[in-house]
């Protein structure tokens, strides 16, 4: 899978298929350019990467961009309040021609970014949750980010933006108890199947503060695991 090249150093390792404003894909991406099946509720997310230069290591280091939803008292979408997620949302037939446009539009609405390149691989869509959503993940890279990234949050939905080093995710997957909405579950289970990542002492880019602990679970954790499985572990540890 071509997105494993994120684990190598240098811009030449990144192979963009299209930009945020332009769509010229084929194969899987051509299939995804069609209008979604109207018989199911369709949505899309954008798994975003950013490369940060490390003086210590002398190379660019890939990070995954994750969002944390606002608390329930502020977030009208209570089902996902406080959860860690990718930018994304529901297909809107009035605004979107296809699911790629959904992912792009939601990325701009939630965190204010347009400077995104699509990588030339996609992950499989998944039907998830009691609401029977079919979710299509896309993989993108933030470009023109030598300095501070101008994140602009949709404040009624997004509380924080985190940039998590890939190696930290590879080194720290876990499965344990978690209590979403006060209800104890075990991950994986028949309802919430997948890993639970314990994100500890992570830095909020948008608020310049350290968050002691944030659980990453559910659908987003499943997609993160698929991405990590597609990366070459040795390259990620260079």
UniProtKB/TrEMBL annotation:
Requisite cofactors: Mg(2+); Mn(2+)
Coiled coil regions, renumbered to chain: none
SUPFAM superfamilies: Nudix
A molecular function GO annotation: coenzyme A diphosphatase activity
Residue ranges of every copy of the Nudix hydrolase domain listed in the record: 39-219
Family matches, as Pfam families: NUDIX (PF00293)
Keywords for this protein: Hydrolase, Magnesium, Manganese, Metal-binding
Stored Gene3D superfamilies: Nucleoside Triphosphate Pyrophosphohydrolase
Origin superkingdom: Eukaryota
Protein name: Predicted protein
Originating species: Naegleria gruberi
Lineage of the organism: Eukaryota, Discoba, Heterolobosea, Tetramitia, Eutetramitia
